[in-house]
Amino acid sequence: MKSSLSLKTALLPLLVLVGLLAFNVLVYGDDALSGSNQFILLLGGAVAAMVGFANKISYKAMLDKVADNLKSVTGAILILLFVGALAGTWLISGVIPAMIYYGLQILHPSIFLPACVIICALISLATGSSWSTSATVGIALIGIGKALEVPVGMVAGAVLSGAYFGDKLSPLSDTTNLAPAMAGADLFTHIRYMTHTTIPSIVVTLIVFIILGIGFSADGSANSQELLTAMNEVFTINLFLFIVPVIVILMIVRKTPPLVALFVGTVLGAIAALIFQQDLLLSLSGESSLSVFGTYQVIIDAITVSTEIETTSPALSDLFQSGGMEGMLGTIWLIICAMVFGGVMDAIGALATISAALLSMAKSTFQLFASTVASCLAINITASDQYLSIVVPGKMFEKAYKDRDLAPENLSRTLEDSGTVTSVLIPWNTCGAYQSGVLGVDVSQYFFYAIFNWLSPFMTLFFAALHIKIKRLSS
User: Fold this and answer.
1) d(CA 302, CA 87)
2) Measured on CA atoms in the order 24, 28, 32, 38, is the torsion positive or negative?
3) Distance between CA atoms of 371 and 390, rounded to whole angstroms?
4) CA 233/CA 246 separation, integer angstroms
5) How far apart are CA 129 and CA 125, in angstroms?
6) 321-322 and 307-308: which strand pairing?
7) Are 268 and 136 in contact (CB under 8 A)?
8) Which of 427, 428, 425 is nearest to 338 (CA)?
9) Alpha-carbon torsion (121, 125, 127, 128), positive or negative
10) How far from the centroid of its chain's Cα atoms is residue 248's Cα?
11) CA dihedral 155, 142, 79, 414 (to 10 degrees)
12) Whole-number Å distance between alpha carbons of 161 and 8
């Protein structure tokens, strides 16, 4: 049974965690996510556990909650492993190089950033998954951006802005279904109501990226021919390679479980490598002639460990590297440690206390919306999970919205505007860890450029402050 903690006591582990993380980043800089932040999360969990012991919360109760949290991210961990595997086979098969090859010829630097937003938005809308969008098209766009000499943080921000826009509005998305379920709203009413804040946010985002794109002239594509030649020297590039990503995207659209789709994508990538990249496989095997054992080893290495493909272009050589499943282990480690901290905080009742304090401050309709936003952000930071940032505030605020004569879609929209999209902005959150790991771009690099993600909670507060599209139960 959770004891009732004072707000000061509930905030203590969080304040210690934030302070330690800030100091750790100051010491390690960009290397903080390589392992030290993970240990800091465990230290934060230890502080929360000591608070729990002092308030007679049993070790077993805390461990059980941690186990529940870890169980909830089992799918995410397996997806991460298969994303690493897929990236490996899509590299040696020429799928990712083909995307970059044709992208260099189609995407001019001046339109590249808004094009990233639109492409990722359409794919995420069709698939219902920002994660799958990042793991497929997102990776390719990062590569094209590097080749066009567009800052990688800008590209990642554009990719994530589009991916989360599509994710929010897709009826196939788990968070889009979860938010109305928690708030007591209808799914399609929720989606229609979300467009009121989501459309203006993405329009502003596109305008900003169009302006940013103006700064990139044709100079960025001046060396494209050199890059195209370098790729042709190593890979066999043709349009048939796009069969692989198209099949994977169609599987996700048809609601195939992500693990199955990623596994099939990995296998198809290996088959494509056998068909189209035999010279590359021979080169990577180090043998004089292609053998079954040598080919097998190259493909399994691409799936499981690092693969590096040398080209005559240093930029492409840096780009054509994959860590396989092994490259995802750092991110998985981070997720596990984040779930330990979030589980202990939940078990000792700290999350409930913090959320209740936020609720008590809501004296007006705007303050109620602001408390919901603050609660979602607080849980995203402390519990490190976007699903908890929807579930906990959703159930906690549901009655308060009804008591204020507010339709449930007001709550469901606010949950998505402040819980779903901001999770990717927090390095130790599962989404932040996943996206930075998959795209190979640190959160600090893309934070400012993930315009849609940080603009969304401000947009929902703006609408609440001016009482725009605030539906009443009595109306």
Assistant:
1) 8
2) negative
3) 13
4) 25
5) 8
6) antiparallel
7) no
8) 428
9) positive
10) 19
11) 10
12) 36
Q: Which residue bears the tokens 């693969």?
A: 307
- Which DSSP state fits 406? B
**Sign, CA torsion 408/160/248/297:** negative
Q: Specify the DSSP class assigned to residue 364.
A: S
Residue 356 burial (CB < 10 Å; 0-12/13-18/19+)? middle
Count of C-beta atoms within a 10 Å radius of residue 78: 15
Amino acid type, 66:
V
Q: Of all residues in the chain, what percent are helix, strand and coil, respectively (each to 5)? A: 80, 0, 20
| E strand residue ranges, 126-194 | none
Backbone angles phi, psi at 472, to 5 degrees: -100, 150
Can you give the pLDDT of all 475 residues of the chain as single tens digits?
445 788 899 889 988 887 887 687 678 765 666 778 789 889 999 999 999 999 999 999 999 999 988 887 787 788 878 888 988 899 899 988 887 788 767 677 778 899 999 988 887 886 677 887 887 778 888 888 887 888 999 999 999 999 999 888 887 677 887 788 778 887 778 888 999 999 999 999 999 999 998 876 555 444 567 778 888 888 999 999 999 989 988 887 787 887 888 899 999 999 999 999 999 999 999 888 889 999 999 999 999 998 888 888 776 777 688 888 988 887 788 778 888 888 898 899 887 787 677 667 777 889 999 989 988 898 888 777 787 788 778 877 777 788 788 899 999 999 999 998 999 999 888 789 889 988 989 999 999 999 999 999 999 999 999 988 888 887 6
Radius of gyration of the chain measured on its C-alpha atoms: 23
- In whole angstroms, give the CA distance from residue 168 to residue 284: 42
**Conformation bin of residue 287: beta by default, left when phi > 0, alpha when psi is -120 to 50:** beta
Cβ-based neighbour number of residue 341 at 10 Å: 28
8-state DSSP, 219? G
User: How many Cα atoms are found within 13 Å in the side-chain-facing hemisphere of 294?
Assistant: 14
Give, in degrees to the nearest 5, the angle at Cα 444 between 148 and 117.
45
Q: What angle do CA 228, 230, 235 make, to 5 degrees?
A: 90
Q: How far apart are CA 378 and CA 344, in angstroms?
A: 15
Q: How far apart are CA 355 and CA 90, in angstroms?
A: 44
DSSP string covering 410-458, please? HHHHHHIIIIIGGGGGSTTSHHHHHHHHHHT--HHHHTTT-HHHHHHHH
What CA dihedral angle connects 279, 284, 286 and 287, to 10 degrees?
Answer: -40
Q: Which residues pair with 322 in a beta bridge?
A: 307
